[in-house]
Design goal:
single chain, 11 strands, two-stranded antiparallel ribbon, alpha+beta, binds the ligand N#CCCn1cc(-c2nc(Nc3ccc(C4CCNCC4)cc3)nc3c2CCN3)cn1, five-stranded antiparallel beta sheet
Length: about 300
């Protein structure tokens, strides 16, 4: 019966837009490294005439930390997220032979916020930074409605879709908070980006929407420093660094205000960095405060 014309016309495999055939996925060049994998620019060109669309493809790089299971969870997570401020899932590509798969996503031509801010330092105004911040806030608010904790909110994981739109990406560390708890405890901390971590995440590997708020404060700081890592180095490697960082945070040391940063904006950062996570604002509070500052902000 499968050979009859009716069956052939509607066989789902042919019309499953989320299934990308490896033979039509043309590699172009690398785009970056995420959690658990590298991201490459490809053209999906089934007609073979270069009219196919550009896509960003994340290939799993299995190593001690990341397994196919983790990657499948990342794919599943991204596939159910539908928000203007979150990078769009396009589908998967199963590689023949090798027991591996790739995640296919929309390609955002301007790259990550880091490179964008460094290259456009002179024409990004504080007002535009606040627009980007409010969009990240909205994306995080959406994630929170689904009980997702991103756990790796950082400028390197924010992508620039256009000069007026940014999107959250890299859900490799994202976890769902169980229904009976308000936080997620991680067993193996792995390669932790501790300079974006809240104190409870450093000390107890405890992650919640409020620890994402702390990281959002660090992203705000990165934004208002034009992602210039010289002004505030945020990636230092040493065995005792997490203990030292935990102590200075406990003693209320915080990142200094970025140069020429309005007090109202630095005040937002400091709210995100309140030691006790219960006293930190939620993303909707932050979003409202940012909108208010934007209205007061004269261009
Ligand atoms: N997040 C996260 C960490 C992992 N990661 C994700 C991407 C990614 N990049 C792009 N686009 C992209 C990236 C770089 C450039 C240039 C910048 C100048 N220098 C040369 C390269 C251009 C455009 N689009 C994407 C993605 C994922 C979904 N869509 C890259 N790294």
């Amino acid at each position: 019966v499968t050979q009859s014309p009716v069956w052939r016309a509607i066989s789902p495999a042919q019309h499953d837009q989320t299934l990308f055939e490896e033979r039509h996925l043309r590699y172009i060049h690398p785009l970056g490294k995420g959690n658990f994998g590298s991201v490459e620019l490809c053209r999906y060109d089934p007609l073979g005439d270069n009219t196919g669309e550009l896509v960003a493809v994340k290939k799993l790089q299995p190593n001690k930390q990341s397994t196919l299971e983790d990657f499948k969870k990342e794919v599943k997570t991204l596939s159910i997220l539908h928000c203007d401020y979150i990078v769009k899932y396009r589908g998967v590509c199963y590689s023949t032979g090798r027991l591996s798969m790739s995640l296919v996503m929309e390609y955002l031509p301007n790259g990550s916020l880091i490179g964008y801010m460094e290259n456009n330092r002179h024409n990004v105004t504080p007002r535009r930074m606040l627009l980007f911040a409010s969009q990240i806030c909205k994306g995080m608010e959406y994630l929170q409605t689904l009980r997702y904790v991103h756990r790796d909110l950082a400028a390197r994981n924010i992508l620039v879709a256009s000069e007026s739109l940014v999107k959250i990406a890299d859900f490799g560390l994202t976890k769902v908070i169980p229904c009976d708890k308000e936080y997620y405890r991680v067993t193996q901390p792995g390669e932790s980006p501790i300079f974006w971590y809240a104190p409870e995440s450093i000390n107890e590997s405890r992650f919640s929407h409020k620890s994402d708020v702390w990281s959002f404060g660090v992203v705000l700081h990165e934004l208002f420093c034009y992602c210039d890592t010289n002004s505030n180095p945020k990636r230092v490697r040493s065995p005792s660094i997490s203990m030292q960082l935990a102590n200075i945070l406990k003693n209320n040391w915080r990142l200094p205000a970025p140069p020429n940063c309005q007090p109202k904006v630095y005040n937002l950062m400091k709210q995100c960095w309140v030691y006790n996570f219960e006293e930190r604002p939620c993303f909707s509070d932050l979003g409202n405060q940012i909108e208010t500052i934007m209205q007061d902000e004269r261009e």
